Amino acid sequence: VALARALVNRPRVLLLDEPLGALDLKLRERMQVELKAIQQQVGITFVYVTHDQGEALTMADRVAVFAEGRIEQIGSPTDVYEHPASPFVAGFVGVSNVIDGVAAAALGASAAFSIRPEKIRVLPNGVAPDADLIVAVGHVREMLYLGASTRTHVALASGGELVVIEQNVDQPVRHQPDEPVRLAWRASHMQMFAARP
Q1: Range 66-74 average pLDDT
Q2: What's the confidence (pLDDT) of residue 73?
Q3: Is the pLDDT of residue 179 over 80?
Q4: DSSP secondary-structure letter at 87?
Q5: Average of pLDDT values for 175-195?
Q6: Minimal CA–CA distance to 67: which of 42, 84, 45, 46?
Q7: 77 vs 63, 127, 193, CA distance in Å?
Q8: Stretch 163-175: mean pLDDT, rounded?
Q9: Phi, psi at residue 165, to the nearest 5°?
Q10: How many degrees, rounded to 5, is the angle at CA 5 between CA 2 and CA 9?
């Protein structure tokens, strides 16, 4: 009803401030689809404020990420997720590993970088990695079963920690605490960050 009242005057821009915040997950997901369809039908620009990063990626044509009143990055949902402009954006939008200092240097990086957990693979024992992969060794610190996927926290031998997300396709992923593992990813999946002045 509130949306209908706002749209009846045909505004040029409509501000929606956390419109789905009070809804449960299933209803919120259905309303995201409905709101997006309404916006496309009426052709009015919606400025949609949300702290739910998944909702922002789902709803938006363009995303602006703010930190302490300053714009950190503006871009398409794909650009903001795949190519975060700063460590803050990488950590705020979705789950990301931000590696800096000694841990970054040990992995051959000249600066801080981020890599998304779903881009990292756990190499099976006895399998040699492809030559174009970056490989890190460590041990399993913690595992979280999330239903469709499993999130594994790996303490790196070089220092720092990486989070890995693996899909539970045929059966749930199972690693044991303190199990030694090798992680691998492509350099093209790393987002490098320049030092801030």
Answers
A1: 93
A2: 95
A3: yes
A4: H
A5: 91
A6: 84
A7: 6, 35, 19
A8: 90
A9: -115, 120
A10: 145
